Amino acid sequence: MAEKKIVNDTETSHELAKMIAELALEKKAEDIVVMDVSKLAGFTDFFVIATGNSDTHIKTLADYIEDELSQYKVKVWHKEGYANLKWILMDYVDVVVHIFDTETRDYYDLETLWADAEKIIVRDE
Fold it and tell me: pTM value?
């Protein structure tokens, strides 16, 4: 693949969010949602939220996203949640990725908490 540099602007961060959602889809993540929080949050432009069906699946999703993006010189700024694998958060500054197990996603319910954000549901066609 051609080398690609991600810069800080909303259009490019939207492309990064879509790319992350597609990568999650490739590894069979469930209920993938891209949320545009750029007008609501001062700390990021987009959330990508996905559900894994087991601890192993959640870790695999996070590792795959990080590995694939590193090929484009896109590095994760901060990540957490590997200790318990119920909710892995990966901060790419303009895009924050949340990979949950079902119970934890239902409990924190980010989609309702950020209900004013525009949402894009990502599915296999």
Answer: 0.89
